[in-house]
């Protein structure tokens, strides 16, 4: 991106191009990793959480919950709730339709709810 910034900056929407590029790169990296890594903790995540640090516990729980989602569902959740993008912007970034974005978000939230409920019960 840095080497081609002069060309990218002339586009109608360079921010959207960069978001799409980052989303595609993330999805490509996740696809190239083996399936056996699913469920492992993210690099740098604390192995033991100190009860005096609820913010760390919340971040760790969020990282674990997001790691349980598929790559596209995780991308939709992050772009929607962290980057505050609209369905149309997310669809442009991921190269899919807004309807697909909504269905992926719905499935991701249902899975996150199921995971939270299972942990609370178990």
From TrEMBL:
<protein>
    <submittedName>
        <fullName>RNA polymerase sigma factor, sigma-70 family</fullName>
    </submittedName>
</protein>
<dbReference type="InterPro" id="IPR014284">
    <property type="entry name" value="RNA_pol_sigma-70_dom"/>
</dbReference>
<keyword id="KW-0804">Transcription</keyword>
<keyword id="KW-0238">DNA-binding</keyword>
<dbReference type="GO" id="GO:0006352">
    <property type="term" value="P:DNA-templated transcription initiation"/>
</dbReference>
<dbReference type="InterPro" id="IPR013324">
    <property type="entry name" value="RNA_pol_sigma_r3/r4-like"/>
</dbReference>
<feature type="domain" description="RNA polymerase sigma factor 70 region 4 type 2">
    <location>
        <begin position="61"/>
        <end position="112"/>
    </location>
</feature>
<keyword id="KW-0731">Sigma factor</keyword>
<dbReference type="Pfam" id="PF08281">
    <property type="entry name" value="Sigma70_r4_2"/>
</dbReference>
<dbReference type="InterPro" id="IPR013249">
    <property type="entry name" value="RNA_pol_sigma70_r4_t2"/>
</dbReference>
<comment type="similarity">
    <text>Belongs to the sigma-70 factor family. ECF subfamily.</text>
</comment>
<dbReference type="GO" id="GO:0016987">
    <property type="term" value="F:sigma factor activity"/>
</dbReference>
<keyword id="KW-0805">Transcription regulation</keyword>
<dbReference type="InterPro" id="IPR036388">
    <property type="entry name" value="WH-like_DNA-bd_sf"/>
</dbReference>
<dbReference type="GO" id="GO:0003677">
    <property type="term" value="F:DNA binding"/>
</dbReference>
<feature type="region of interest" description="Disordered">
    <location>
        <begin position="28"/>
        <end position="54"/>
    </location>
</feature>
<dbReference type="InterPro" id="IPR039425">
    <property type="entry name" value="RNA_pol_sigma-70-like"/>
</dbReference>
